[in-house]
Amino acid sequence: MNQEIKCFGCGAIIQNQDEKKIGYVPKKTIDNDQILCQRCFKLRHYHQLSQTSLTKDDYLRILQTIGEKDCLVVYIIDLFDFNGCQIQGLVRHTGGNDIYVLANKRDILPKSLKEVKLEHWVRRQLKNEGIKPINVKITSGLKKLNFDVIYDEIEEYRKGRDVYVVGVTNVGKSTFINALLKHYASVNDEALITVSEFPGTTLDLIQIPLDENSYLYDTPGIVNSHQMTHFVKTEDLETIIPKSEMRPMTFQLKPEQTLYFSGLARLDYLEGQINSMTCYFSRYLQIHRTKTINADQLYNRHKTLKMEIEGMSTIDQMKTYEFSIKNGKCDIVISGLGFITINGKGGKVRVHVPKDVWVLKREALI
Ligand code: GDP
Question: Which of 56, 91, 101, 162 supports an S-S bond with 133, CB 3.0-4.6 Å?
Fold first, then answer.
């Protein structure tokens, strides 16, 4: 394909090789005079912003460019995978600009969880990450939760400056920007989106005018490759990413028992007393309990237990992590897949995951 063809929406070089990369169009649409990449097409016609990804270097360049400006950074994080969705070095790279944190996907957590409690939890976690935000708002892009306050606060905090929206892929950045687009939709749709070039990258960013002199920029997401979402097939994402309130499932687990999570991950309870383990995963994920002694065999024999992970067919290809459980509550997080709240009475667990998927222990969210 001619490398010089550019999307007239965002300026990205048109390509038909990789749907997840910028400038993608399906082959059949390439004959048109004015080509819109798939991302811009969806944006114009359906007000949908689809995810694109960048190389780490391009992404760092974008963050550094943000660091050279005087602006407000809107940092979107996903409450479902708080730790897995952090942008490493965000504060360092954005050069001391104000960071307004939107903690997204509140709708998938239990309704009974108080917003103020959640907000305090997010603030503590951000502190651990070295982030001192100008403010934190709990939200749900899908439900437009707290959006009126968020629009007002963006106006208040930006003080006439540009706004850059950042977040890793799948945190819901597009959904949020789509809502913003609609919020500003009194302006003609076509005029709403303009193109801006980001120096040093192959990328042109989508720019939404906020007023005569300032813009909101959507930055592309960076893929955090330690999230489970990047190991499953695209069609399985629907199953593992929760879209509605998670239905927690509690197991009274005895030592030497194992839980399988659709075969994508597994938790062995190695030692301790009977412990209550509450699993927060997508409601479509199958959780299967078995004896640890039979667990390897079960995985290797039963195809139905497992969603397919490329290049992995036997359990010994998974990586394991061990955690000791103290008295009190903690979460074991499997990045991008879900978490298990252990109401601990002491003990030890082992978690098996595809190599590179992060597993960690943290203060209980719920
Ligand atoms: P992006 O990659 O950050 O642009 O994320 P998207 O906006 O494409 O969203 C990624 C996935 O999360 C999609 O399946 C969305 O439907 C879903 N999503 C986005 N926002 C929310 C939300 O507030 N709640 C829930 N439950 N899902 C959301």
Answer: 101
